[in-house]
Amino acid sequence: MKHIHILGICGTFMGSLAQLAKALGYRVTGSDVNVYPPMSTQLRAAGIEIFEGWGLEQLKPAPDMVVVGNVISRGNPVMEAILNQMLPYTSGPQWLAEHVLQGRWVMAVAGTHGKTTTASMLACMLENADMAPGFLIGGVPLNFDVSARLGDSDFFVIEADEYDSAFFDKRSKFVHYRPHTLVMNNLEYDHADIFPDLAAIERQFHHVVRTVPQHGLLVYPAKDEALKRVLAMGQWTPEHTTGEGGLWQARNVAADGSAFDVCFDGAMVGRVCWGLTGAHNVNNALAAMAAARHVGVEPNIACEALCSFSSVKRRMERLACVKGVTVYDDFAHHPTAIKTTLEGLRAQVGDAAITAVIEPRSNTMKQGIHQQTLIDACDDASRVCWFQPAEQGWSLQALIDDRHPQHACFDSMAALLENLVKKAKPNEHIVIMSNGGFGGIHQRLIQQLDH
């Protein structure tokens, strides 16, 4: 039995890769500095040994292959030992491409926003059509309750991230996947820690477009100017467009996005009534349906799947309702994501109070790249509570002036929690928005509201 060791195993991508490797029959071990549930629990339940920290004992005996996560950089003690001992190593995307994706019909979902949700929808559509897809998704689809599985067919759905592969491979992850069906949901500037501007990201998107075969399919929104520039660099594959002016459109859309008709090439092909809200999720659904049809899933079957779709953990996940106060967890990482989420909730709850609790934690927001658009992104919230950690290099408070009395900034978790509990009132909706753990604020707030 071959042994692979994974550095950075508790990230969503690497942890999911570990479980796929285990299912393929490998002996799998790994290490990380942040070993905590739910990923650590999933890994240990799968029989995967985890080392906490970067002790060199994890390389004894030497593994057959080390899979290096993109959180690892030169200077890491284990990585330096790997290089000095000339042990074989590879990136996560490269290993996945060679051992899981090779020979399969890969359906990749890329874009700045909505990758996890759209990939989850697509996997559910194929499952509803009895196609037993494999998948690796950067979250846990509630319809499956796992983030990855090998599947029992040629089809494999993957969330295709544009972030770099490893410190020794600066290509975007998705370049390794070689999809037959490629969804590009949207494209905005993000990942300011590795991309200097939007044009650099567009170039990476074109790299993956160049790998899609002539009998493949490109799916993208008809009005996205950045994606138009990507395709203007060269296109060799048929396309299906979505949204306004597209081949796939939503009509008779409910105000909150909870119901809509699906039209393909001018003809109505189905209706969706579901538990999700927001125009962004309607657009995600159209993209997933276009991709599913490419592999034979009829629109009526896809609509059935959407009607029973239960979303994804941490995507407007309703955690609790305590004394009339509803608490949600949302994986917001960009002003556009914040804006579309709050718009969808406002359309759903009408005049009820909405409090947005936001930690600008993504690398792009930490650098202050989008700070000018952050305040406007929260227009649909009644109140906004910003959390500013001490290490952040720019001031959230400086964005708030007399025109924004509903905004407040906190540098203490205790003070933030005290304020939320003190001002909470029945029929209020509190949305906690962060792409990290946010200091466990979710359960702490629920407990304090309850007491």
From TrEMBL:
Keyword terms of this UniProt record: ATP-binding, Cell cycle, Cell division, Cell shape, Cell wall biogenesis/degradation, Ligase, Magnesium, Nucleotide-binding, Peptidoglycan synthesis
Keyword Mitochondrion among UniProt keywords: no
EC number, UniProt record: 6.3.2.45
Pathway entry: Cell wall biogenesis; peptidoglycan recycling
Mur ligase C-terminal domain ranges (all copies): 314-436
Domain of life, per lineage: Bacteria
Boundaries of every Mur ligase N-terminal catalytic domain copy: 3-101
Any one Gene Ontology molecular-function term assigned to this protein's record: ATP binding
Coiled-coil regions listed: none
Binding site for ATP: 111-117
Catalysed reactions, as listed in the record: UDP-N-acetyl-alpha-D-muramate + L-alanyl-gamma-D-glutamyl-meso-2,6-diaminopimelate + ATP = UDP-N-acetyl-alpha-D-muramoyl-L-alanyl-gamma-D-glutamyl-meso-2,6-diaminopimelate + ADP + phosphate + H(+)
Keyword Mitochondrion attached: no
Limits of the Mur ligase central domain: 109-292
Gene3D superfamilies in the cross-refs: Mur ligase, C-terminal domain, Mur-like, catalytic domain, NAD(P)-binding Rossmann-like Domain
Biological processes per GO annotation: cell division; cell wall organization; peptidoglycan biosynthetic process; peptidoglycan turnover; regulation of cell shape
Transmembrane segments: none
UniProt cofactor(s): Mg(2+)
Family label: Belongs to the MurCDEF family. Mpl subfamily.
Function of the protein: Reutilizes the intact tripeptide L-alanyl-gamma-D-glutamyl-meso-diaminopimelate by linking it to UDP-N-acetylmuramate.
UniProt-recorded name of the protein: UDP-N-acetylmuramate--L-alanyl-gamma-D-glutamyl-meso-2,6-diaminoheptandioate ligase
Gene: mpl
